[in-house]
């Protein structure tokens, strides 16, 4: 049995009426004692490891297992040891989760907003 299992975790945002409709993190479960911690990124604390209860915040949540590879464990450890502050555009919770899973910090939500904004600008500019 592996010492640690990793999961992609998601839940609705706590207090953001608009904007991203999901909060993401990477959960690590210690298979020796069952303890679960979550690496995630919030405006208040930036990138940090918190309890699962703190992450879930009393809301419904979803978890999907992710492969436990040496690279993913190394990236998880790197982010926890070198946390960055929160920035909606360049370092939000999606950036943190993808940094661990894919080694590339990206936010699909911000990318979609940028594409829609670009096309809206083009439509506006061509109507003038």
Structural class estimated from helices and strands: alpha+beta
What does the overall shape look like? globular
Strand content: 25-35%
> Over all CA atoms, what is the radius of gyration?
17 Å
Question: What structural keywords apply?
Answer:
128 residues; alpha+beta; 5-stranded antiparallel beta sheet; 4 helices; 5 strands
Short description:
With 128 residues, the protein is an alpha+beta fold. Helices cover 37% and strands 27% of the residues. It has helices at residues 52-56, 70-81, 93-102, 108-127, and strands at residues 4-11, 23-30, 36-42, 46-51, 62-66.
Task: Walk me through what this model shows.
By secondary structure, the chain is α+β, with helices and mostly antiparallel strands. It has one domain (4-127). It has helices spanning 52-56, 70-81, 93-102, 108-127; strands spanning 4-11, 23-30, 36-42, 46-51, 62-66. The protein has a 5-stranded antiparallel β-sheet. A hairpin with a 3-residue loop joins strand 3 and strand 4 (46-51). Helix 2 runs antiparallel to helix 3 (93-102).
